[in-house]
Amino acid sequence: MPDYRKSFRAAAVQAEPVWNDLDGGIDKLEAFARDARDGGAEIVAFPEVWLPGYPWFLWLDSVAWQSQFVVPYAANSLEIGSPEWQRLESVARSLGISLAFGFSERSGGSLYMGQAVIDADGRTLSTRRKLKPTHVERTQFGDGDGSDVVVVDTPVGRVGSLNCWEHLQPLTKYAMFSQDEQLHVAAWPSFSIFGGAVNALGPEVNVGASRQYAVEGQTFVLAPCATVGPAAQELFADTDAKRAMLPLGGGYARIFGPDGSSLADPLAPDEEGILFADIDYSAILAAKNAADPVGHYSRPDVFTLHHRDTGRLPKVAASARDIPAAEPVVADDLVSAE
Fold first, then answer.
1. Does the record bear tRNA-binding in its keywords (predicted)?
2. Distance between CA atoms of 3 and 263, rounded to whole angstroms?
3. What is the DSSP letter of 267?
4. How many angstroms separate the Cα of 8 from the Cα of each of 153, 158, 209, 277, 281?
5. How many CB atoms lie within 10 A of CB 225?
6. Considering only CA atoms, which of 161, 175, 182 is closest in space to residue 4?
7. Which residues neighbour 210 within 8 Å (Cβ) at sequence distance 6 or greater?
8. How many domains does the chain have?
9. What is the number of alpha carbons within 13 Å of residue 165 lying toward its C-beta?
10. Is residue 317 part of a domain?
11. Torsion of CA 70, 71, 77, 82, to 10 degrees
């Protein structure tokens, strides 16, 4: 049951990752988490795949050229439960602040676009995978499943997370709204790719997606966003043409209230820093009085959403007969939201 009486301070980070350096990335996360804690925040959110940074090489050249980046990226991806993971839990516990961060998850030999919430006692409350990687991301990352569309109870309320263009997936959003989400982490990599030539990848559309999520779901939204700095260009852009496709900046971190209002002054697109906002969940009740898409503003007699929230498939089955049979897909499973 969500508590609408709670108020606290939250923070969203805008910064360049430490590219392909897991330990260095955790060091930088810890420094920002300490600054957020010192600024009074009880939770701090970091960008998409903050650890070990977004794989911009996927967008810049051929698969053959990209191959030089594949092993270093995978080697610096994060395994859940590893010593590095335990260090992140220790950071949260020692600083007394909840962490919401993106990471490239390595499981076996496969990679997934992960997000996690670790509370101020150092307990991992949730991990999830991006349900469907976007465009060329699918050449590197695997899919999530129904268990990755989840909102969890935390000391700062009901918290959910999505990555980047998952905020353009109507059914995913509705499944999140239906779980009484109060605080949402909308994680982004940066909005600099192709220098604005592709409007759908730029700040106007994607900042708008974060704001729209807040209004649609009547949630507070922390939208951390990474930047592209000289280190990124040095690593990924070996020609002037690639530097033009991956220009400096791209940071558009924001925090929005459940009525779509902006709660923090933005930083310059090439500036690193932290946005802070004071959160008061009673504002959600005011927003839902006007329109609650999973309550009084819904029409369940017309639309329904079927969310298959099953988890990971078993890695090994004793025999073929031990593998559960797939459920038949019926028409209702393919139609959408209330």
1. no
2. 21
3. P
4. 15, 13, 24, 9, 9
5. 31
6. 182
7. 167, 186, 188, 221, 223, 254, 256
8. 1
9. 10
10. no
11. 160
pLDDT the model gives residue 33? 98
DSSP-derived letter for residue 320 is G
Token pair of 222 as six digits: 């922390």
Pull the structure tokens for residue 52: 């070990």
10 is written with which tokens?
């939250």
Residues whose CB falls within 8 Å of the CB of residue 268, separated by 6 or more in sequence, listed in order? 249, 251
The confidence score (pLDDT) of residue 146 equals 93
**Residues involved in catalysis:** 48
CB environment 100-129: b (16+ within 10 A), e (fewer) = bbbbbbbeeeebbbbbbbbbbebebbbbbb
**How far apart are the C-alpha atoms of 209 and 206, rounded to whole Å?**
5
- Domain membership flag for residue 231: yes
The dihedrals phi and psi of 246, each to the nearest 5 degrees, come to -125, 70
Produce one character per residue of 296-332: b if its CB has 16 or more CB atoms within 10 Å, e if not.
eebeeeeeebebeeeeeeeeeeeeeeeeeeeeeeeee
Range of the domain at 102: 7-290
* C-alpha 98, offset from chain centre: 15
SS3 call for 102: strand
Per-residue model confidence (pLDDT) at position 327: 54
Strands across the sheet containing 254-256 = 151-154, 157-163, 183-187, 220-223, 254-256
Asked if the structure places residue 247 within a domain, the reply is yes
Residue 299 lies in a domain: no
**What CA–CA distance (Å, rounded) separates 287 from 218?**
6
pLDDT at 196: 76
Alpha-carbon radius of gyration of the chain: 20
pLDDT averages per 10-residue partition of the chain, 338 residues: 93 98 98 98 98 97 96 98 98 98 97 98 97 96 95 97 97 96 98 86 94 98 98 96 95 98 98 98 96 93 90 54 47 42
- The structure tokens listed for 13 are 């980070």
Helices (H), strands (E): how many in the chain?
8, 12
